[in-house]
Amino acid sequence: MDVQLVPTLFDYRLTDDVVADNVLTKQAAEELFTFFAGCALFKWHDVHNNCEARADAVCRLLEAWQVPHYKAWVFGGYFLRKHIGGLKQLWNYHVAAVLPVKEGAETVFYVIDPSVGTALQTMYNWAAEVTAYPHSYHFIKSADYFIFRSGKIKKDNWHLRDKQNSKWMLQGLAGINGVSAKGRAQLCFNKQRIRNTAKRFAMLQHNKPLLTAINV
Questions:
Q1: Residue 200 included in any domain
Q2: Which parts of the sequence belong to the Protein glutaminase domain (predicted)?
């Protein structure tokens, strides 16, 4: 009998303790996915453009709209633990916003990531979708963590949002990776584009999309 490996595993050591008292209806979650998939501010087709920036931008908007949310992370096994396991697109890791959704008596976490799929995906299916070969490891973190620190990745040694990574978030939305050498050079010639992106983002924060039956 052939043994089939599951592509991705949930990492209990790195995940945050999540108490999802405030949950969404599946319909509201689907409407949010549709909104973000069609939002011109997000360059979902650019698979190498700062997933951290896109995920943080989605989460900041959800926070402004008072929608419960977290971040879902997935790491290739080699990058995280020096084991076998890698992600597609030669990514070391990937991150996206995730919503707590009530389904029957359970809370199911659905990921908003139009760069990976054309509809909502459960966190497991999303992580499996970006896994090139087993194993990857996925988990949930608080939305206000922007990125992990250098060195060994632990549960609590993550960078919170701050002034600098807020700039990186806006630069990423503008299509510029401000962390890279190329991106830093682009910043000199694209200041107006970044200012325009900041204005559009601020407008979205104050204009929550109309959702039907958002909370259970």
A1: no
A2: 39-129
Look at residue 177 and tell me if it is in a domain.
no
Which whole number is the average pLDDT over 61-89?
Answer: 97
Structure tokens at 63: 């926070």
Is residue 3 included in any domain, yes or no? Answer: no
Q: Which residues pair with 147 in a beta bridge?
A: 159
CATH number at residue 71: 3.10.620.30
**pLDDT at res. 215:** 62
pTM, to two decimals? 0.94
* Cα–Cα distance measured from residue 198 to residue 200, given in angstroms and rounded to the nearest whole number: 6
Range of the domain at 49: 8-161
**CA 130 to CA 35: how far, in whole Å?**
22
Answer yes or no: is 117 within a domain. yes
**Number of domains into which the chain is organized:** 1
Beginning with the edge strand found earlier in the chain, give each strand of the sheet holding 70-76 in spatial order: 8-10, 136-141, 70-76, 93-103, 106-112, 121-122
